[in-house]
């Protein structure tokens, strides 16, 4: 559900950049009291895991479409909504800048659509409500499933509204919404199952992580080395190997565009759109999660290439490993900087 710039006007894209920056600033302020030596590396490793997991598109049977984990709900459950949103933003920033996954003008929309609804609507209002009487496997499953579906429905509907407000006449509201919502309902069900599986494992291994994320407490002296190791290994294997087996079908947004317009992507207009596309082409060293060819485009074997499956390709593996490492560094650095600034302020008042 990564939007391309062609789906947005500069006014809507710029407005969503400002809105998302505001949500990020609010999250930075609120998360300051929740970060300690344990949660900062957890942000990094979970960011790397979500980056790798998003490389694996799964086929939606009978549709010719595919979907992938969003990850915002999972991050909110394990980190709390504020750290979860900032980690989700780290994932999407790395994807947009260096892998050309989602446009630069659309980056504010993508962070908002995938991060805000899951962290600040679905997590507190649905998931936490369903598990408030105590964690059980059944409640985690039900809460994850329903929250994932609602979060993705809100995010996909937001995509439709943003294109409507941008005046994208190729996408009539009624047609686009009738394609986007059902296909993302199916994707949301799978996301809920994956989220429930990961959360259940963490709950059985270190239940304190979920409990303290829900209350905004520091992790304190809890030993989470096993959790960090398992998630890091999962990120490496997923990004380095499992990514070869991603479905080659278009994702839910591309599928909806294809059925509404006959094309998986719309052509971007001149001006701001072309300038940002040129900038992204220069920055993105692994476009579409593969090596660049001499023309600066994604070489064969890149993720989503319909010519080969599985896409056993060094470019795909290197993209998964490098992207995961970059996300880990950005998410952890974000947490570390916030924590350091908070401690500096505290010491000045001693």
TrEMBL record:
<keyword id="KW-0812">Transmembrane</keyword>
<dbReference type="InterPro" id="IPR020003">
    <property type="entry name" value="ATPase_a/bsu_AS"/>
</dbReference>
<keyword id="KW-1003">Cell membrane</keyword>
<feature type="transmembrane region" description="Helical">
    <location>
        <begin position="72"/>
        <end position="98"/>
    </location>
</feature>
<dbReference type="GO" id="GO:0000041">
    <property type="term" value="P:transition metal ion transport"/>
</dbReference>
<protein>
    <submittedName>
        <fullName>Fused nickel transport protein NikMN</fullName>
    </submittedName>
</protein>
<feature type="transmembrane region" description="Helical">
    <location>
        <begin position="104"/>
        <end position="127"/>
    </location>
</feature>
<dbReference type="Pfam" id="PF01891">
    <property type="entry name" value="CbiM"/>
</dbReference>
<feature type="transmembrane region" description="Helical">
    <location>
        <begin position="318"/>
        <end position="338"/>
    </location>
</feature>
<feature type="transmembrane region" description="Helical">
    <location>
        <begin position="139"/>
        <end position="161"/>
    </location>
</feature>
<dbReference type="GO" id="GO:0005886">
    <property type="term" value="C:plasma membrane"/>
</dbReference>
<keyword id="KW-0472">Membrane</keyword>
<feature type="transmembrane region" description="Helical">
    <location>
        <begin position="227"/>
        <end position="246"/>
    </location>
</feature>
<keyword id="KW-0813">Transport</keyword>
<feature type="transmembrane region" description="Helical">
    <location>
        <begin position="181"/>
        <end position="203"/>
    </location>
</feature>
<dbReference type="GO" id="GO:0005524">
    <property type="term" value="F:ATP binding"/>
</dbReference>
<dbReference type="Pfam" id="PF13190">
    <property type="entry name" value="PDGLE"/>
</dbReference>
<feature type="transmembrane region" description="Helical">
    <location>
        <begin position="7"/>
        <end position="28"/>
    </location>
</feature>
<feature type="domain" description="PDGLE">
    <location>
        <begin position="225"/>
        <end position="339"/>
    </location>
</feature>
<dbReference type="InterPro" id="IPR025937">
    <property type="entry name" value="PDGLE_dom"/>
</dbReference>
<dbReference type="InterPro" id="IPR002751">
    <property type="entry name" value="CbiM/NikMN"/>
</dbReference>
<keyword id="KW-1133">Transmembrane helix</keyword>
<feature type="transmembrane region" description="Helical">
    <location>
        <begin position="40"/>
        <end position="60"/>
    </location>
</feature>
């Amino acid at each position: 559900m990564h939007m391309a710039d062609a789906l947005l006007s500069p006014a809507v894209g710029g407005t969503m950049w400002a809105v998302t920056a505001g949500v990020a600033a609010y999250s930075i302020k609120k998360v300051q009291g929740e970060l300690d030596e344990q949660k900062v590396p957890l942000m990094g490793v979970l960011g790397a895991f979500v980056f790798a997991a998003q490389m694996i598109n799964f086929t939606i049977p009978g549709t010719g479409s595919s979907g992938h984990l969003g990850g915002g709900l999972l991050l909110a459950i394990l980190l709390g909504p504020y750290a979860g949103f900032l980690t989700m933003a780290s994932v999407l920033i790395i994807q947009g800048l260096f892998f050309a996954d989602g446009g630069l003008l659309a980056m504010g929309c993508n962070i908002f659509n995938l991060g805000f609804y899951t962290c600040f609507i679905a997590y507190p209002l649905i998931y936490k409500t369903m598990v408030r009487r105590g964690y059980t496997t059944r409640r985690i499953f039900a809460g994850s499933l329903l929250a994932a579906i609602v979060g993705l429905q809100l995010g996909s509907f937001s995509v439709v509204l943003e294109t409507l407000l941008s005046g994208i006449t190729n996408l009539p509201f009624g047609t686009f919404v009738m394609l986007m919502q059902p296909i993302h309902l199916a994707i949301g069900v799978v996301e809920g199952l994956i989220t429930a599986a990961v959360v259940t494992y963490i709950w059985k291994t270190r239940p304190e992580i979920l409990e303290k994320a829900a209350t905004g407490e520091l992790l304190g002296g809890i030993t989470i080395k096993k959790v960090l190791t398992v998630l890091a290994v999962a990120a490496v294997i997923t990004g380095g190997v499992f990514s070869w087996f991603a479905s080659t079908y278009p994702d839910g947004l591309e599928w909806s565009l294809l059925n509404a317009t006959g094309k998986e992507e719309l052509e971007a207009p001149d001006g701001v759109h072309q300038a940002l596309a040129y900038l992204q082409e220069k920055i993105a060293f692994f476009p579409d999660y593969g090596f660049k060819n001499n023309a600066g485009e994604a070489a064969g074997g890149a993720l989503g290439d319909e010519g080969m499956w599985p896409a056993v390709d060094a470019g795909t593996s290197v993209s998964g490993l490098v992207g995961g490492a970059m996300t880990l560094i950005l998410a952890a650095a974000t947490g570390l900087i916030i924590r350091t600034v908070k401690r500096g302020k505290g010491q000045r008042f001693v």
